[in-house]
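Slide 14.
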Amino acid sequence: MITVFDLDGVLSRSDTMATLVFARLRARPWLVFPIGVLSAVAALASAEGALRPRCNRAVVHVALRGMSEDEYRGLATRTAGRLASRPGNVTAEIVDAARAASDAGACLVTTATEKFLAQRFLADIGLHGAEVHASEFVFSPAGPRFRTHNVGQRKAFAFRAAHPTGRIGRFYTDSASDLPLAELARDIVLVGPSPRSATAFTRTGIRFRRVD
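Slide 15: predicted structure.
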């Protein structure tokens, strides 16, 4: 069976895509207000609905407007390196579990973060060989936009497409947005979930273990 890891909140305690956006804002401080409004709406929205991911996509589109693919990859590489070396951002026990699953050929990392950024971060923490399901950008002169946003139900769709007869042995997550994928797992580990996420899991009747 496959062991599945969410990225943000699990393998990285910080939100990888948000960290990249904040780094971009240092060069474009005039975007702080519109992005702050969108971020506030996203924070208030339910993790299980469509509003939060819609706002998060808008934040990324606004922050990265006009950025070329090479510029984005440079920023993503720097951001991944900072997150990988940030004290307290990586939990050794969880990364060790991911490495063990990867060595056994049964590790999947699934994330709403853009794929290049996710892969750079995983390489920087020494997690090689894991299958990665992530969001993807398409680039134009106007900048990057989401071609696919790997969040919520889409994570479950991606897993079924890649593993039509597969089952998840253990799933590490921190978010109620992952409930559709959690329904495919035999064993669920909630890593430092917010009260809202823990309550959402409890309401469904899905059994889980909690690691704080």
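Speaker note: The first strand starts at residue 2 and ends at 6.
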